[in-house]
Design goal:
By secondary structure, this protein is mainly alpha-helical. The chain contains 4 helices and 2 strands, in the order H-H-E-H-E-H. Helix 3 links the parallel strand 1 and strand 2.
Length: 97
Amino acid sequence: MDITQLPTPALIVDFDKMKNNLREMQQRIDALELKLRPHTKAHKNPAIAQMQIDAGAQGICTAKLGEAEVMAAGGINDILITTPIAGKNKIQRLVKL
C-alpha cells in the first residue's frame, strides 16, 4: 500500500526509534528512582501502552473513561484516569471497568 492510500488519521511510527525512546525514557526514570506512568494521549494504542509497561512503566494514564475502556480491552490493567468521572452512566461504566 502506498502511504497516500492510508486512511486518516493514521499513526505512522519509526518502530526502532520508538523502542529506543521508550528504553531511554525508562532508563532516565530508573536513574532518578521514580515510577513512570505515561499518558496515552499521544498514541491511544494499547499495543504501544503495553510496550511502555514492558519497558518498566508501572501503568498508564488516560484522559477519559472511553480511552481507559479501550486500553482495558487491549489487555492493560493498570490505568489511571486523569479527569473526574461524573454522571450515573459513566460511573456504572467505571465500576464495570
